[in-house]
Amino acid sequence: MLLHRARARSFLATSVLLLLGSTPGIATSGLPDPLAWRLASRSAAIYERQHELVLEPEARRHWGPFVHEWNPPLLFGDELDKARRALQLPIFDTRDLGRHLAFDLSAYDDERVRRGEIGLQNSLLPLAFELRFEAPDAAGQQRAKGRLRTLPTSRAEEENDPRYLTSSQGSLEGELALSRRLDRERGLVVAFDFSMELRWTPRFRGKVRGTFDLRWREIWSLREVLSADLPIDRSRLEELVRESMTRATGTMAKSLGPPTDPSMWPTPARATSAANFPDGAKASITILALLHAGRDRSDPLLAQAFERMLAEEPLDPWAHATRILAIAATAAPREERAGGRFARTPSPRRVSAELRPFLEASTRSLLSPLARADAAQPLLWLGADGRSCSERAHLATRALAEAAWCGIELPASTWPRLAAHWLAARNDSGFTCETHHVEATGLGTATALDALQLCRRFLLDDPASRQDARLLRAIDEGLRSGWQWMEEHYTTRGQPGHLFTAQTPRFHYHWALLSAAKGRANEELGGRPIAWETMLHYAGLQSKDGSWGNHDHNAFALLCLDAPPRAPETPSSGR
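The structure assignment produced for this chain is given below.
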């Protein structure tokens, strides 16, 4: 049952330093570990969750470290540290605090104090917590109470550190409570109840803007444990994915129906806003996702929406790119577009004479930055917000590839220019997200991997381009370092390496990474079954009405769902 009363956005990305009090019973080096998770690698513990957020409506006007349900109630065995006693990845924000504390078995054997700092990573407060655990009872139940507080910062730190935003300054204080039950024989936390009673005092330009109460509670209970390597569990995943796709396609097809819905269909005023995912592309990306999920264009709602998509003038590079992808999907065999991930060696598409003019027009639009920009400059597919980003560039690259497979002739310079654009976003290891960023991100790296693999494929198909050994070597080195970075930073629970935790980039990050993995015929990364994990992630994240929150979230999530992936063709290190 969902008890979520009020939703508030949280932009708190965190890292954690764990400190245990010097109390008896701590395992030391060389001694056997007294307690550990028995959740194997390539497995997942799946929970049922109830949660409640009570937040004063006025508080939502002020950015703050508020909790919301971006992540599903599950634990992957590969998220555990080497001792298999706690999670190895950082706490991304306050929504993950309860999960981290409940699943940390290092504080289970005795009464002890668990302390940690949630460090400042993006525009929000550095926090500290302290939790005092009681000794567990005979049934394995353990309780703990503690506090969360804001660490002091100086005005100079706030003014000179770009990670601070004036709207996020202030203080967050309050009480924490945890109750959990461990099944020692199975080595699993089978239930926990975590709550926070907090007081948020935002400060803007040095002035306090009020004090607001926040109450959060979540209750988890273990439902099942699945393995990526057991046939019976792969069948169970297939069942979960089918159910999720059925719920999603029904909801999404209906959302295309109302022609006056301003959240789906563009208007000139809304299409020129700096939205995270422009209105002009919401309908076409939804159509694409439904086609990939198996809906036929002849479906009445889909047919009507498709005709309207063709009648509307695309107002943004997003809309041109997603229109190309939707048109190409009508000509692709079902097995090549399953789950929205793309075939390693696509067959030629036969686009109808009716659709070809629309395909040609949108292709010309996406090619225009290549004609305008100097060869040494990055390609800019500018949106209404005046920004260029890896999401637009990735959709443009993917759309131009689909146009080529549909028989549209592209200039000979297309793939060398695109490859140079993506290589320019490379830093020491991964790839950056936008032209003005310097830090590698999950979105930047995943989109670059998928795009560079496409560039490499088309360059090798062209006898003239095959002679450019320097460019091909640069692409190969970029792919090698990009996969290495992704192996080191990969997680399903957030966009790795990125300080800003906006939601849509996380969805696009997953889709781009799965497309890149399928493009190299290996859907594993460092031994982790990333397609299997991502499908469990989105099946668990979906609400009961079939939605993941809004139109673009729904589309990208559905594009990530498919039947369980095949095993990799050869053993791989993930690079």
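Interim note for the steering committee: The chain has two domains: 16-227, 232-560. The CA atoms of residues 504 and 553 lie 6 Å apart.
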